[in-house]
Amino acid sequence: MEQELKDRIMEALENVVDPEIGVDIVNLGLIYDMKLDDDGIVWIDMTLTSMGCPMAGMIVTQVQEAVKDVPEVNAANVNLVWSPPWNKDMMSRYAKIALGMK
């Protein structure tokens, strides 16, 4: 996938906010990988901040809806993965500042 398209998909995903934390999933570092197939289906490997996240279904649905705004994307398949486990070091500087962390 070309970088410009990947950037636009990531930009769309910045609109998906983890409701328990209040920061978007991109800046939290929850997006691990993505691929776009010839049918315009984007395959996204992502994680959540905890395995028992009660908002998992809602977040997955929001991811699928957000990427539909990118013209090249017809649909999204989200694969929740737990390896490597998410940790606070995966957050962007922006997320750390927003959450009052150093």
UniProtKB/TrEMBL annotation:
Q: Where is the signal peptide?
A: none
InterPro entries hit by this protein: Fe-S_Maturation_MIP18, FSCA_dom_sf, MIP18-like
Q: Which Gene3D superfamilies match?
A: Fe-S cluster assembly (FSCA) (3.30.300.130)
Q: Which residues form the MIP18 family-like domain?
A: 6-78
- A Pfam family of the record is FeS_assembly_P
SUPFAM superfamilies of this UniProt entry? Fe-S cluster assembly (FSCA) domain-like
- PANTHER family for the chain: FE-S PROTEIN MATURATION AUXILIARY FACTOR YITW
Q: What is this protein called?
A: Metal-sulfur cluster biosynthetic enzyme
Organism, as annotated: Bacillus benzoevorans
